[in-house]
Amino acid sequence: MTEHAFFTNKDMHVTVPAGFSLRVEFLASGGQLSINGQDYAVNETGLVVPANGQQTQGLAQRVLEVGQRLRDGTVVFSVDPAKNKALFVPAKIFGGQASFDEQDQVVEAANGHHFHGHTDWRRITDDEGYRLAQDWAKVTTQTPAFFWLASLQNDNEGRVLLPKSGCYTTNRHNPNVWVPLIRSGTARYVEAELT
Description:
Blueprint: E1 2-7, E2 21-26, E3 32-35, E4 38-42, E5 48-50, E6 61-63, E7 74-80, E8 85-90, E9 94-98, H1 103-112, E10 122-123, H2 126-134, H3 136-139, E11 147-152, E12 157-161, E13 168-172, E14 177-185, E15 188-190
Parallel strand pairs: 1-2
Antiparallel strand pairs: 3-4, 4-5, 6-15, 7-8, 8-14, 9-14, 10-14, 11-12, 12-13
C-alpha cells in the first residue's frame, strides 16, 4: 500500500505505518526534503536527488556522454564536465517545421506542451548546428534533413544545413524547414534517469 504525502515549502513531518510505502510529491519548486538526516532536492527532470553534491547509496551520479539517452526521451548533445553543463536534444531532433521568421513559434509550442517534460527549449545556434551536423549519427537515428541555423544569409535568405555535410546553403525565408530544439542542463545525472 502507498501512503501519499504532498509537500509545499513549509515544514512537514510524516510518519509512515509499517507495510506502507511513501510517495512524495512537491507542489512548489525550490523545496528541500530531508530523510533520515540526508538532504534531497528535486532536479530539473522531477527526480529527487541528493542535495549539495551529497552521494547516497543507490543514487550515484555520473558524468553524461554524448549520445547517451535519458528516460525523458532526450539525448546528450554535448558535455562540459568542468562546468557541470550539458546540452540536450530531443531524440527526433526537431520540434516541427516553420519559415525562418517563425521558428520561435515552434519553440513556444514545444515549451507550452512541456515537450519531453521540459519548458526551456530554444533554437539552435550556428555553432551548435554545425556540431549537430557532424555528430548526427551519435545523437539520432533520424534520416538527415535540412534544418534552419540561427543566422540570416541576407534579407531574403536564411541558412540551412544538411546533417553529415557540415556545409550550409541558403533558403528563402518563407518555405517551411525543420527547426531543431536544444536545451541546457547539468552534466551529472543519477543512474535512475538514464536508459
